[in-house]
Amino acid sequence: MNPGGYDMDKKKQSVTRMENPYIKHKTLESIREFKQKRKLKRRMQLIVAAGIMLVLLVGSGLVRNYYTLQQLEDQKVQAQEELESLDLRQEELEYYIGLLEDEEYVAKLARSEYYLTKDNEIVFSFPDDRNPDHTKVTEEGSGVFEDEENESEEQSE
Predict the structure, then answer these.
(1) Is a pLDDT exceeding 90 seen at residue 12?
(2) Which of 29, 67, 116, 119 sits CB 3.0–4.6 Å from 110 for a disulfide?
(3) How far apart are CA 107 and CA 124, in angstroms?
């Protein structure tokens, strides 16, 4: 039972439907209006779905570009570090080239390394003689200036 005391099923059964042109016209008009609203609703849903897809597509492109940018920045940092290392190595090599242009250094090197002597000269070699600086430069990745740089970094910390 309804709050008004009427049974809805009985009320529907007791109401007869009029079949005249006006009612048919209004019924067709309401059906047409319902179909238009449903069509409009579907169109709006399609537009919203297309908008969401567009946002996702653009967003994924932005994320991909951001990730690529981060990788390129990392590569740039690594390349700069390698460039600094190579510049330091070049400075070391240029330093030793300058030393090799000095005749006194070359004579000292020939005496210590190859035991060459002048007339009436004797060379003494001890087992714990340290290797000359030029041997450090000929080894890849090690250098005199790098040691000095590491010492200065340790002192600054």
Answers:
(1) no
(2) 116
(3) 16
